[in-house]
DNA sequence: CGCTAAAGTTCTTTTTCGGAACCCATCTTT
DNA sequence: AAAGATGGGTTCCGAAAAAGAACTTTAGCG
């Protein structure tokens, strides 16, 4: 499979990865969630090559995950901000952060903690069923064809991809 | 920043990405969650170059996300299975799947649906606070130093990375 | 003996990446 | 007015990684 075809795969994971599945993109987005908005600041904090950063910002903007907004005229300067689509990636961040906290920390514990302002506690995410509220576990899930499945998959009787 | 240094960054996101932050790894893991276990089957389903697959399986095995188990002797054949560490990546999958369903589907809807066997409903994940049960939103979170923060970060007064 | 299967490895050609230099339109300082 | 400084890029090069195809190894089968 070639990388540019990924967004047309009949799989939401593949399609998501066509946007965020590369080495730098999620690190750029981490900075966005930490309110970093300017080219220079991304570059300094990440140590990313400038043309790679330019490319990623453009791709994220084209994908509707970031939007470019002028913050001054003369000289015109623009900053990058998360759109609603981008903010919706927060659960992906949380899932990766929690997994890293649990499995990639040394014996001392995780380098950073997240506190939930609403209740005041240090927290991690629990992934619950939107319908019954129970925690979702891999072995409790089945996959089935959705409305957007390609005809070939429907004809094949719903072999999950 | 160089890619091999990523796992030593004081950031759980970066550390997680040092394992799963590449083009193919999460697609390989998708297949694992769909009970694919053998080299050939990964190759056929993914259309991945064999040496890239061999490399990813080795890295995932070295990282403790997969384990290699013989399923027959003479000739010896081995299959790859998710470890507990690997199964714990399920929330990452869910988050990416749900995001893709919402933002990357055509007008017809998502190509596949996930049903929760426990309650019988088609579902998506809600990311809730482990302490208070409310949904976690980006703007309700603050970051602070954890026990594993490097001394330099503590000295700098907790500048979040 | 020749054929097939599973799981890799090797080789060659494209892409992508990292690092550094350069560009350009405006302020700011001398 | 000339000489930086700033922000946001683009260009160029050599190095690293990926795609694609062929080759290898161990063993069973007819």
Secondary structure elements and pairings:
Two copies of one chain form a homodimer.
Chain A: H1 12-20, H2 25-33, H3 39-46, H4 50-62, E1 66-72, E2 77-82, H5 84-87, H6 90-103, E3 112-116, E4 125-129, E5 141-145, H7 151-155
Antiparallel strand pairs in A: 1-2
Chain B binds a DNA duplex (30 and 30 nucleotides) through residues 2-3, 23-24, 38-40, 43, 48-55, 74-78.
Report on the structure:
Two copies of one chain form a homodimer. Chain A has 161 residues and is an alpha+beta fold. Chain A has a single domain, classed as Winged helix-like DNA-binding domain superfamily/Winged helix DNA-binding domain (Arc Repressor Mutant, subunit A), CATH 1.10.10. Helices cover 39% and strands 17% of the residues of chain A. In chain A, strands 1-2 form a two-stranded antiparallel ribbon. In chain A, strand 1 and strand 2 form a beta hairpin. Chain A is globular and about 60 Å long. The two termini of chain A are 14 Å apart. The model of chain A has no long low-confidence stretch (mean pLDDT 93). The interface between A and B is large, with 91 and 91 residues. Strand 5 of chain A pairs antiparallel with strand 3 of chain B.
Throw out a few tags for this protein.
Arc Repressor Mutant, subunit A, two-stranded antiparallel ribbon, 17% strand, 161 residues, globular, DNA-binding, alpha+beta, homodimer
Oligomer: homodimer
Number of domains of chain A: 1
| Number of DSSP helical runs of chain A | 7
Strand content of the residues of chain A, in percent?
A: 15-25%
Instruction: Please give the CATH architecture of chain A.
Output: Orthogonal Bundle
Task: Write the CATH fold name of chain A.
Answer: Arc Repressor Mutant, subunit A
Largest interface: A-B, 91 and 91 residues
> By helix and strand content of chain A, what is the structural category?
alpha+beta
State the end-to-end distance of chain A.
14 Å
* Approximate shape of chain A: globular
In which order are the strands of the major sheet of chain A placed? 1-2
| Fourth-level CATH superfamily of chain A | Winged helix-like DNA-binding domain superfamily/Winged helix DNA-binding domain
Q: What is the class of chain A in the CATH system?
A: Mainly Alpha
Order of helices and strands of chain A: HHHHEEHHEEEH
Helix content of chain A: 25-40%
Low-confidence stretches of chain A: none
Q: Radius of gyration of chain A from the CA trace?
A: 19 Å
Let me know the average pLDDT of chain A.
Answer: 93
């Amino acid at each position: 499979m070639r990388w540019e075809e990924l967004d047309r795969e009949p799989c939401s994971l593949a399609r998501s990865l066509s946007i965020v599945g590369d080495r730098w993109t999620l690190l750029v987005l981490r900075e966005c969630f930490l309110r970093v908005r300017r080219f220079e600041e991304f570059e300094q904090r990440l140590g990313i090559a400038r043309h790679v950063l330019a490319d990623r910002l453009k791709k994220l903007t084209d994908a509707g995950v970031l939007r470019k907004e002028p913050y001054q005229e003369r000289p015109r300067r623009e900053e990058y901000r998360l759109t609603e689509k981008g903010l919706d990636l927060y659960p992906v961040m949380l899932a990766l952060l929690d997994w890293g906290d649990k499995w990639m920390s040394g014996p001392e514990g995780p380098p950073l903690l997240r506190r939930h302002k609403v209740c005041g506690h240090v927290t991690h995410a629990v992934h619950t069923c939107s319908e019954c509220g129970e925690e979702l576990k891999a072995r409790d899930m089945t996959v089935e064809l959705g409305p957007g499945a390609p005809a070939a998959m429907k004809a094949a009787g719903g072999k999950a991809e």
